[in-house]
């Protein structure tokens, strides 16, 4: 392959909780979408939703639903920078006139045929997003929590996508029409140099970035606060795939462990360290429950899951404060450390 036709792969690394932005940029192979532009888009979607709700015939801006929706703050971006699927869809539609349907949406699977016909995937579970993209007829896992792109063989792609869905991920697709990948260093103005990887080197297991002679071990921050430091050199394609799949599922495992927390009995009103927390449950009902300040914040999630009794395995989204913040931002604290005494927790299905 000549130097003029060499393919380069763009792979943004995790910053804060901006994985939605990273997933979009990795999908389109360039630094196209910024956190500011996506935030503005989220606010525009919020305004459109509120305007629609204000025009109902049951109270307008004074209706209960409108006032509750207004009090919730943005439904499309939280303070940590996690964007909704509607923001990602609107961004792709406005910039490239591309649709982003769920792979399980009626009629989509039939239109796809073989999953290898799909050009790009956006995968989501709770607050984490990542992209899979076909480049030069190869599929690459571009998870921003990984240190570098990981190759997925055509043979393994269907199993990878099915495995993600089995582990609770929602998978969205772009059938075709994504921007062409980069084929020269001159085109790398679309992103920082350290985010570009030479495809041929990745295939051979060398993994050199576009910074000549630079060492890029990939010790960036993941969503769970830990760092990545895997050396993928000299690994086979299958070994790299297994590492990528295992780490893609890591957040799923962490979440499952949190959900396994057993709900303790409600403490007495006069118990030392007892606090009250209010809830608006996913079904619209309201509840007040006592907890101990020393209990972990995840005990709140355990209560909501027990009270909701969904039975369908849907993911819960719990928010508190104003502007609303995701409860996961304080998941590693106790209820007392997170200052949740007297808080109102808004609960809904993601």
UniProtKB/TrEMBL annotation:
EC number: 3.4.19.12
UniProt signal peptide: none
Catalytic activity annotation: Thiol-dependent hydrolysis of ester, thioester, amide, peptide and isopeptide bonds formed by the C-terminal Gly of ubiquitin (a 76-residue protein attached to proteins as an intracellular targeting signal)
Gene3D superfamilies in UniProt: 3.90.70.40, Phosphatidylinositol 3-kinase Catalytic Subunit, Chain A, domain 1 (3.10.20.90), S15/NS1, RNA-binding (1.10.287.10)
Record's GO cellular component terms: nucleus
PROSITE patterns: JOSEPHIN, UBX, UIM
Span of domain UBX: 270-348
Assigned keywords, A-Z: Hydrolase, Nucleus, Protease, Thiol protease, Transcription, Transcription regulation, Ubl conjugation pathway
Positions of the Josephin domain: 6-189
GO BP terms, alphabetized: protein deubiquitination; proteolysis
Protein name: ubiquitinyl hydrolase 1
Organism: Cylindrotheca closterium
Lineage: Eukaryota, Sar, Stramenopiles, Ochrophyta, Bacillariophyta
């Amino acid at each position: 392959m000549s130097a003029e036709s060499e393919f380069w792969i763009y792979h943004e690394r995790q910053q804060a909780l901006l994985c939605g932005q990273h997933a979009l940029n990795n999908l389109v192979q360039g630094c196209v979408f910024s956190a500011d532009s996506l935030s503005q888009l989220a606010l525009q979607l919020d305004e459109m939703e509120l305007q629609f709700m204000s025009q109902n015939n049951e109270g307008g801006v004074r209706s209960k639903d409108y006032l509750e929706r207004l009090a919730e703050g943005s439904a499309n971006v939280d303070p940590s920078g996690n964007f909704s699927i509607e923001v990602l869809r609107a961004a792709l539609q406005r910039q490239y006139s591309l649709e982003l349907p769920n792979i399980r949406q009626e009629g989509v699977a039939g239109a796809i045929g073989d999953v290898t016909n799909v050009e790009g995937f956006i995968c989501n579970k709770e607050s984490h997003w990542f992209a899979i993209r076909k480049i030069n007829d190869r599929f690459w896992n571009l998870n921003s929590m990984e240190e570098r792109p990981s190759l997925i063989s055509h043979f393994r792609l269907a199993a990878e996508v099915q495995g993600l869905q089995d582990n609770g991920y929602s998978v969205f697709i772009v059938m075709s029409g994504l921007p062409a990948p980069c084929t020269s260093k001159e085109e790398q103005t679309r992103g920082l140099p350290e985010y570009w990887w030479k495809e041929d080197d990745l295939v051979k297991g060398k993994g050199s970035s576009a910074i000549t002679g630079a060492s890029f071990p990939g010790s960036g921050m993941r969503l769970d606060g830990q760092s990545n430091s895997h050396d993928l050199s000299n690994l086979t394609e299958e070994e790299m795939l297994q590492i990528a799949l295992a780490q893609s599922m890591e957040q799923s495992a962490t979440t499952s462990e949190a959900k396994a927390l057993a709900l303790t009995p409600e403490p007495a009103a006069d118990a030392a360290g007892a606090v009250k927390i209010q809830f608006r449950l996913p079904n619209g009902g309201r509840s007040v429950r006592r907890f101990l300040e020393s209990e972990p914040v995840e005990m709140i999630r355990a209560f909501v899951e027990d009270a909701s009794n969904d039975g369908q395995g849907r993911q819960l989204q719990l928010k508190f404060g104003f502007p609303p913040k995701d409860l996961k931002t304080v998941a590693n604290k106790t209820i007392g450390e997170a200052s949740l005494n007297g808080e109102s927790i808004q609960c809904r299905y993601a």
